[in-house]
Amino acid sequence: MPVLSKPLSKPLAVTGFRVGSASCGVKSADLKGKRQDLTLIVADVPAQAAAVFTQNTFRAACVDLGEQTVRKHATNIRAIVANAGNANAGVGEMERVWSQQLIDLGAQAAGVAASQVLSASTGVIGEPFPIERIASTIHQAAESLAEDNWVQAAEAIRTTDTFAKFASRQFEQNGKTYTITGVSKGSGMIHPNMATMLGFIATDAPISAEKLQAILSPIADRSFNSISVDGDTSTNDTVYLLSSGLGLGDTELNDTSDFEQALQDVAIELAQLIVRDGEGVTKFVTIEVTGAENETQARTLGRTIAVSPLVKTAFAGSDANWGRILMAIGNSDAPIQPDKVSLRADDVLILEHGNLHPDYKDEMGMKVFSQQEFTLFVDIGLGDASAKVWTGDLTHEYIEINAEYRT
Amino acid sequence: MPVLSKPLSKPLAVTGFRVGSASCGVKSADLKGKRQDLTLIVADVPAQAAAVFTQNTFRAACVDLGEQTVRKHATNIRAIVANAGNANAGVGEMERVWSQQLIDLGAQAAGVAASQVLSASTGVIGEPFPIERIASTIHQAAESLAEDNWVQAAEAIRTTDTFAKFASRQFEQNGKTYTITGVSKGSGMIHPNMATMLGFIATDAPISAEKLQAILSPIADRSFNSISVDGDTSTNDTVYLLSSGLGLGDTELNDTSDFEQALQDVAIELAQLIVRDGEGVTKFVTIEVTGAENETQARTLGRTIAVSPLVKTAFAGSDANWGRILMAIGNSDAPIQPDKVSLRADDVLILEHGNLHPDYKDEMGMKVFSQQEFTLFVDIGLGDASAKVWTGDLTHEYIEINAEYRT
Q: Taking the model in full, what pTM does it have?
C-alpha cells in the first residue's frame, strides 16, 4: 500500500508534445497485449534538451548513448523512446547494439532521425534484450500518439511500481501560460532487478538547452537525488527534460525564476511519489537539515540519516529512537560538533545543542513517529545552508519482496 | 540462530592478566544478580597499550577518555573496566562525569591509579548512567579475578549478543610460547540501541606500546573494520590491545611477524563471530576483492557490496542476483572499468571481463547462494591489491528485532 493520501491530479498536455504507448511483451512474450511497456514521447518541433544520468560506473549503454546525443544534439531532439521490463544492462557486447536498435526503432516510429532520439530502458538486468518484440509492436505507440496521453506514458514505464507517477505545474509570464508535465518511475526502496529511476519532463516554456541544463542539474539534486533508494543508484537512472517552446517560435524567457520554481515543484513531486510507492513503505518521512555550511553538506547528512537501516526500522516500529538518529548524524562526513546539534520531530523538541530537552518524554516522540507522515528537523549549527530529503521505513514487506527469487 | 558450525574453543589464559566480572543491574536494577554486565581486566604489571576507536563524530565520553589515556600512558596501563546495558552516550554534560567515575571505580577495584585504567561502555543510548549500582557491586568483579576467567569477561560485555565471543592463538619464538586472547561483542547487523562493537585483546608477547599501535591499526582495518554492521559505526566502538610481556621482564621481540599473524587471526576470528551472531543472520558470506589498485580501495569496494540491502536480501533469498552485485560494485568510489570486472561465487564463474560466462546458468549460482556459507570473488582488474570483507544476509528477523519498541 503506497503512502498516498489522495489520487493524483490528471497531468496536463504540453503544447508541442504527443505521447503514445505500446504493449510489446518486453519482459516476457506472454505479457504482450496485457501490459503497456513502451513509451514514445514525440516533440512536433525540434526540442531543447537537458539530462542527468546515473553516477553508477556500471552504466547501461542507453545512458552512454543518451549522454552523447544530448551533448551533440541538445537543440534538436524530437523523441524519447523508453521501455520497461528489461534494462538492457549487464549483457556484454550486444548491449550497445540493442540500445542503438531501440533508438532506430523509436526514430522510425516517430518519423524523425536517430540522432534526434533519446532512449531509456528499465527492468531486469542481465537478460537478452527482446528487440524483435519491440520492432513488431512499436507501431502501436506511434498510432496512439496524442497530447493528453501522459497517464499512459507513465503507465508504460512502470516496473513493479504500484501506481503510475505524474505531475504538472503551470506558470504565467508575459501574458502567456506555460506548462510543465513529467512522469517518473522507480521504487522508494529497491526493486529486485529494476531499481532504476526514470523521469521524463516536458515543457513548452521557451528556454535554450544550455539554460535548461544549468537549471536541471541543481533541481535534480534537490529532488531525484534527495530521496532514499537505499543509497544505491542503478545502472540506468535517467532524467530527461525537453522544451518545445523555441521550436514553436516563442521568444526565449529572460527571467527563468518562475520556470525554475515550477520545475522544482514538478521534480520534487515526481521524486516524492517514488518514495511513497517504495516497496513495503508504510511511512513517508521528510528530513530537513539546517545549519549546514553548504547545501551539499546538508543533503549528504540528510541522506546518511535517510538510508540508515537502523533509522528506517525505527520508523517502521514507530520508535522515536533518537540515539539511532544521532549515530547516523555522526556517521556523515560533516564536521559535526555534538554540542551544536539540535533535533526536532514535527513540533516536539528532542535534543537542544547536544542535550536532551528537559521537557522531552519518550511518549511525545512516539506520538510523532507513529504518524504516517512526519518531519525530522536536524540543525547542526555550523552555518546557514539547508536541504530536504525524503525517505520511507524499512519493513517486513521490503524483505519479502526483495528476498524472493527473480522468477 | 547464529551461523556457527561448532562451539568455540576455550580461551587461553594470558600470563600477567586476571579477569573478573560482576552483575550490577546496569540496564535495570531488577537484572542485578541475574546477568553479568561488568568486566574487569587487570594487568598484574604495567602493560603496553594500543587502541582503535569509532570514527563516529558523536563519540561517547569513554572514547574520549580512553584515547587520552592511551596517548599519555600507553606504557603503563593496568586495567580495563567495561560495562554492558548502558552506553553512557547522548546524555549531555553528565556523560564525562559518569565516565570518569566508572574509571575511578575500576581503579579502586583493581587497586591501581585512575590514569592506568581504560574504560568502555555499551548498551542503550540516552539513558542516565546508573553509576551507583556499579559502585555498590564492582567489588564482585575484583573478587572473581582469575587468569582463566576470559569466558566470563566475554559474557559480561554482551548486550543482545546470543553467545559470548572469544578467540586465542599461540606462537613460539626464541624458545618461548606466547599467547594472545581476545573477547568481543557486537552484532553482525545493528542492535536496537547498542550497535557498539567492543574488542579487548591481551597478550604476553613483549612488544612496546608504540609497535603495538603500529601493528593494531592495519589489523583492525582487516578485521573489525571489514565486517558489515550496516555501514554504521556506533558512538562507542573500541578495541583495546594490552601486552604484559615487557612488564613481566621479558626482552622485546625484534621480529614481530609471527605475533602480527597470530593477532590478525584472533582479530579476524573475533570480528567474524560478530557477523555470525548478527541479528536475523542466516548466512555468512565472505567477499574477496582482488585486482584493486590498493588495499583500501579493495576494502571499500568489498564494504560497498557487503552493506547493500539489495545484495543482503538476495543472500537471504538464496538468489544469485549478480545484477545487484554489479550495481553495488558500480556504486563504489573505485574507478571501475566494467569490461575488466570478473565475478565468481565459490567455484562458479559468473562474469568474466564484464561478460556473462557462456557456461553460467542461474541454477549454478542459486546452488552456491543457497549454502549457509559461501564466498564471492570480485576481481576488478586494475591492480594487485586485495581485501576480504565478511557480511550476513538481511532477513525478516532483522526487521522484527529492530522495528520493536525499545522497551
A: 0.85
